[in-house]
Amino acid sequence: MNTILHKAATRGHNSFGWLNSYHSFSFGHYHDPARMHFGALRVLNDDTVAAGMGFGKHPHDNMEIVSIPLEGDLHHSDSTGRNEIIRQHDVQIMSAGSGIAHSEMNANKNKEVKFLQIWVFPKTQNIEPRYEQKSFNPADRINQILTVVAPDDDKAVWINQDAWFSLANLSKDFTTTYALHKSENGVYAFLIKGDVTINGIELNERDGLGIDGTGELAIQASTDAELLLIEVPMQIK
Fold first, then answer.
1. Would you identify the CATH topology of the domain 2-135?
2. Sequence spans of domains, the chain
3. Distance CA 2, CA 9 (A)
4. Alpha carbon distance 216, 234 (integer Å)
5. What residues contact 51, with CB distance under 8 A and at least 6 apart?
6. 8 Å CB contact between 123 and 63
7. With 0-12 CB in 10 A as exposed, 13-18 as middle and 19+ as buried, what is 101?
8. Is 83 exposed, middle or buried (0-12, 13-18, 19+ CB in 10 A)?
9. How far apart are the first and last CA of the chain?
10. Spatial separation of the C-alpha atoms in residues 49 and 200, rounded to whole Å
11. Pairing between strand 208-212 and 2-6?
12. CB atoms < 10 A from the CB of 116, how many?
C-alpha cells in the first residue's frame, strides 16, 4: 500500500479579495512539482467566492470538471447556451471534451458560496462537450457511502473516466469499508469536516490522503465527519 498525506495547512493558497482558494495540487500561482496530480486526479480546489462574484467565461478542453457546492449556490453558463443554478446537495460535471467556454458565479447577492472544484483527466479525448447535474438526498449518505459520480451508474452523474466519487456523512465512532472498483485504481480521500482514520492514518478537517496498492479502505470516524472519496486510475493514458 502506498500513501501520501496532504495536511490542510500544506495546501497552496491564493486570495484575490473576491476569491479565497486552497489547492491540494498545483494550480494557478501555486506550483509544487511534488503535487502535480494523484493519478488521473489533476485539481482539487476548495473555493470560497464572495457574494455576486465569480469566474468569468473562460475556455477548457479535454478535462472532466466536477463542482460540488458545500454552501450557497453557483450560477453556471456556457458556450452551448446552458444556464443553470447548482445548489448545495447537487453535483455537477462538465466534460470539456473538444472545447467549451463557461463561467461559474456566486448566484447569491448576500452570502458567500463555498464549493469544491475537481478536475480529472479524461479517458477519451475530444468527445463532444457535455453537461450533467443531479441532486442527491443528504439522508442517503448518513453512515453510508453514496456514489455521486461514476461511469456505470445511472443514479450518479456520468464521467468520461474509470473514476468514482463518493460522499459520506459519518457519525462519531462509525466504521465502514470502501472497496475499490478497479485494482489498478487509487483513492484520494478529502475530509470536508471532522476527524477520521483511514487504513490507520488519521485525517483532520480539509486533509487529503492518497492511497493506492490496496483493494479496500477501512474508515473510522473519530467525530461526526463529512468525507469525499475520489477513486481514479493511477496511470494516465
1. Jelly Rolls (2.60.120)
2. 2-135, 138-233
3. 22
4. 15
5. 106, 108, 109, 110, 111, 112
6. no
7. middle
8. exposed
9. 22
10. 35
11. antiparallel
12. 21
Question: Does the predicted model carry a pTM greater than 0.70?
Answer: yes
- 217 bridge partner residues: 178
The strand pair at 157-158 and 146-150 is best described as: parallel
The one-letter code for the residue type at 202 is E
- Quick check: helix, strand or coil at residue 140? helix
The rounded distance, in Å, linking the Cα atoms of 85 and 69 is: 11
Q: For 74-129, what is each residue's pLDDT tens digit?
A: 999 988 888 899 999 999 999 999 999 989 999 999 999 999 999 999 999 999 99
Reply yes or no on domain 138-233 having CATH 2.60.120.10. Answer: yes
Fold agreement between 2-135 and 138-233? yes
4 HSE (CA, 13 A, CB side): 15
| Cell numbers at 131, concatenated | 453537461
